[in-house]
Amino acid sequence: MEEKNKIEELVEKLNQASDAYYNDKDEIMSNYEWDAMFDELVKLEEETGYILPDSPTQKTGADESIGEGNREAHEYPALSLKKSKNVSDLQKWAGDRPIWLSWKLDGITLVATYDNGKLTKLMTRGNGSIGTNITYLAAYISGLPEKLSYQGHMVVRGEAVISYDDFNRLNDMIDDSEESYANPRNLVAGTLSLDSKRASEVKDRCVSFNAFTLVHIDDEMISWGERMNFLSDMKFNVVDREATSADKLQETIDKWTKIVRSGQMNLPVDGLVITFDDTDFAQTGSVTGHHATNAGMAFKWQDTAATTTLDHVEWSCAMSTISPVAVFDVVNLEGTEVRRASLCNISEMRRLGIGADRKTSLKVIKSNMIIPKVIEADGHGTDFEIPKECPVCGFETKIWVSDKTEVETLHCTNPNCAAKHLVKYTRFVSKSGMDIDGLSEKTINKFINEKYIVDFADIYDIANHKADIIQLEGFGEKSYANIIQSIENRRTIEPVNFIFALCIPMIGLDAAKKIISTCGTDGFMERLNNDTGFEDIDGIGVEKSNSIRSWYMDENNRALFEKLLTKVELKKVEATSITDGKCMGLTFCITGNVNHYKNRQEFVDYVESQGGNVTGSVSKKTNYLVNNDNASQSNKNLTAIKNGIPIITEEEFLNMFG
Q: Distance (Å, rounded) from C-alpha 453 to C-alpha 425?
């Protein structure tokens, strides 16, 4: 009885952690803790034979209900792989057959379908049998060609990931009520949850598709290695791979493990995968739980934990966020000396149990042999100190609590804090900002150190320093010319991008869109000059409004603002408030493929231009569900039927509102 109770407790905890991990929520358990708990569950299930239907040992591990698309059945079930931390288990599984080793990337698994040379469907793995159709995002994901020279039916499975470099860059630019993402996978999940109105942001977040298997092709092609080469020829991003065998497997794994330990992997990985070269044989065998016995096996590294003592917490400032870093007595992990690990935010410090310096015991791992992570702390009931002043500029700090997640983060109240400048310049020139190619963080840093750039507006006067720039190491006439051309191409700017680029505390891209949608360019300028505020705008509120007003009332900021307007021109955008549109006051949910409009975004734009509202889900407030397949048994159709909401085709919509 005691063992059954323990199994039920483990299943509940593991499922809660999996839900947070797979569905874009704050992590509540480290991989190290999850693996240890999972191993304990497996052992208890084997000993007792007591297996609950919702046990994580019986599931793929993912049940993403992301995006606004329909839930649909997969043509080929996307089953998960059995995992092991022992190379001997993999060698036994491989036997004497030729095998391949590849990375187990840590992202969101997607399934792409092609017919007649065109991408016809992109779906999330979901629970392995049913996924979410997110084809409307496909054009914004790199490494996923929309057209192929191959004209047959083809199904490709791959992992959508964001590199560590892009993850760090994007996290540094988050300065809204949203909190920083816990890891690249968490950011990918959130990105693929965006609706069609925000689809272009997927490209800005640099999501890439990395094919790891060719599930189906009409032609005869048995070799897995040949299939992967074929995908490379079709211009897919394809995972790195190496042919090996059971007797060479330990040597191959050791070699690949060194790559991870050395920090050379910029893509997030959480293990390795071995696959049979004979794809016909790989499709044989049984299915146990949600694991196909011959489809492949995953190797996971054993995270080694070390116990140490907290020396002190170091607080570092980037943008307006002051983040805590644990500095502790040095420990040796995965062959390297480790003495520092991020603590993320104040809420995470409380969860772990961080206490006073030299009185707090820490358990530290190197997650996936890359990122040092504190997984446990014993502060003996003592409290940690939260700095009242910014460690860089000495200005007062403030604790902000996210409306969405209730996570506590510490912020510097000085908008001109020197520690923020480089990150702010990176945001200024980013695609969501002024979109100036060629000005990398490294280049900007060099120009700042050479005193070519003192404020944002100086970027537009870089040409004054041509003679000096072309003499700098790594520069020349061509690179200089490319930068100048990029700057000149961006002299006329959308006001939304301009507002984002200014790096106003708490004001991100979404807030900028809401402001311009409500006020237009002229209305935004008028409110600034009259100091009337923006709290009446849905989603802005008093705190964000006051942040904009305080920023603009600062003499230095206002001078910069006015100087920038002598260098660039803001496009005139009218407020989108409609009083007599054909869709006035109506709420639509649009799902599935569109035929009349070029794409779903064009459809959404039309509805909004006519005073209507478009949502990503069906609720009692929805007036119409637009679906060209109005007989579909999708969740949206069933919800609409249940609530008596009319389901109309695109043609019917045009007749009524076009």
A: 10
Contact present, 82 and 298 (Cβ < 8 Å) = yes
Burial class (CB in 10 A: 0-12, 13-18, 19+), 556: exposed
d(C-alpha 183, C-alpha 171), whole Å = 9
Q: How far is the C-alpha of 153 from the C-alpha of 327, rounded, in Å?
A: 55
pLDDT tens profile 164-202 = 888 877 765 554 434 456 678 888 888 888 877 778 778
Q: Is 70 exceeded by the pLDDT of residue 23? A: no
At residue 176's C-alpha, the angle toward residues 171 and 180, to 5°, is: 30
3-class SS string, 256-283: HHHHHHCCCCCCCEEEEEEEECEHHHHC
Main-chain phi, psi angles of 178, to 5 degrees: -65, 150
Per-residue pLDDT reduced to its tens digit, 550-567:
999 999 899 999 999 999
CA 420 centroid distance within chain: 23
Three-state secondary-structure class, residue 3: helix
| H or E stretch covering 498 | helix 495-501
- Looking at per-residue pLDDT, the higher value among 50 and 220 belongs to 220
Domains of the chain listed by start with CATH number? 2-58 (1.10.287.610), 71-299 (3.30.470.30), 306-410 (2.40.50.140), 420-570 (1.10.150.20), 587-657 (3.40.50.10190)
What confidence score (pLDDT) does residue 414 get? Answer: 81
What is the average pLDDT across 39-49? 79
The token duo for 593 is 């493929």
How would DSSP label each residue in 144-194?
Answer: --SB-S--S-EEEEEEEE--HHHHHHHHHH--SSSPPPSSHHHHHHHHTT-
CA atoms of 111 and 96, how far apart (whole Å): 31
Q: Which residues are catalytic?
A: 104
Structure token pair of residue 31: 């991989």
Cα–Cα distances in angstroms (integers) from residue 307 to residues 328, 331, 332, 333, 383, in the given order: 10, 8, 10, 11, 20
The answer to whether the CB of 430 falls within 8 A of the CB of 486 is no
Angle at CA 437, nearest 5°, toward 435 and 441? 95
Q: How confident is the model at residue 19 (pLDDT cuts 50, 70, 90)?
A: low
Give the whole-angstrom CA distance, residue 209 versus residue 267. 11
3-state SS, residue 506: coil
Find out whether 347 and 410 touch, Cβ atoms under 8 Å: no
Range with the lowest mean pLDDT among 1-5, 396-400, 419-423?
A: 419-423
- Cα angle 120, 123, 124 (rounded to 5 degrees) comes to 165
